[in-house]
Amino acid sequence: MSDYLNKAKAMQDELSWIRREIHKKPEVGMDLPITTAFVLEQLEKHGIKAERIIDSGISVLIEGGKPGKTILLRGDMDALPLAEESGEEFASEFEGKSHGCGHDMHATSLIGTAILLNENREQLHGRVKLMWQPGEEIFEGMKAMIAAGIMENPAPDAALDLHVDASSPVGVLNYSKGPFTTSADNYLIKIKGSGCHGSMPENSIDPLNVAIQIYNAIASMRFREIKGSEFLAMSICSISSGNSFNIIPDSVEMRGTMRTYNPAIRDYVVERIEKITKEVASLYRAEGSLEIASSAPTIANDPEMVDKVIGYLEDFGMDFERDPNYRLSASDDFGYVARTIPSVMFFIGCKPEGLERNLLHNPKVVFDERALPIASAVMAHVATKWLEEHA
Ligand SMILES: [Zn+2]
Ligand SMILES: [Zn+2]
Hints:
Blueprint: H1 4-10, H2 12-24, H3 33-45, E1 50-54, E2 57-63, E3 66-76, H4 103-119, E4 125-133, H5 141-147, E5 158-169, E6 172-174, E7 179-181, E8 183-192, E9 196-197, H6 207-225, E10 232-233, E11 236-240, E12 247-248, E13 251-260, H7 263-283, E14 287-296, E15 299-300, H8 303-312, E16 321-323, H9 335-338, E17 343-351, H10 371-389
Parallel strand pairs: 3-4, 3-5, 5-17, 6-16
Antiparallel strand pairs: 1-2, 2-4, 6-17, 7-15, 8-13, 8-14, 9-12, 10-13, 11-13
The structure holds zinc ion (2 copies).
């Protein structure tokens, strides 16, 4: 049994403090100057050499004392454009922004992991690469980290990611052997018609009429072309155009999101939405186009690596209540890594005791900080064991 868990528990006060400092100053998107500087400062305090590989992205390489492979551990640091209503004394000081997805927990627990691994580096086989990224919520951060070289010099052979699970108590570990999160494609449909006075619709090419036909064609495709047993959401969440009683507008924009675990269905549906948009628009004398505004691939956990990881946790020092068939209809840009090397992502419980309802992306969400040292130690333990086995 490694003593990572006991060492991590001894860091509880420090980890809670770090997490609260990050929590108070949530930053959204790709630009996280305060958070990045603070995380770098904490790493440096512990003598850990860190590199800023993009403006708000950090990479740390812990070189083991023995030869071996490389494993990547991922953490994210970005917050949500969501006003916090948690009532915590360390709640967000920034209006309209909060850590409602718990990325403050991830950024912190990965600092703990770095400290544990750095102290134990002489015993490590190979090396551990740790990364703190911005822009997970907008699916831009991982792409930028990859473009900046996180997957090179040295190239990781496997990757591990952990997300807090606000709905399960401390001591729960949820995962799947195979598809875990959906792919996400946020799409924008533009329809260009021709407007005029509302009393003379015969003079228009009414884009609102076209939008309704496209909406219905997309909705009816769901069960006419895709098996009912396949998970597929392709909701149109916004239709915007016009602002008066008597003017038919020139154009319409529709925004939607598409989620599925199956990459083949993802490709098929994107192609069909594009074809429907163009052809239905053209049928009604308008012009239609489709743009994928942002996307993330599905995360399919490597089944063999899942078995290994769960096996390693047998001598971790604590028993987890586990759900091995857990799936999320949400998405995460860790998918850009998971599609290239064997990877595992899991959800770790952090719902405070006595709470019935606690949901990520909810303004009232709160997190049990006892999950911090557990998460730190799980990542360190699994990485150490994986490197040892694959040396
Ligand atoms: Zn989120
Ligand atoms: Zn998240």
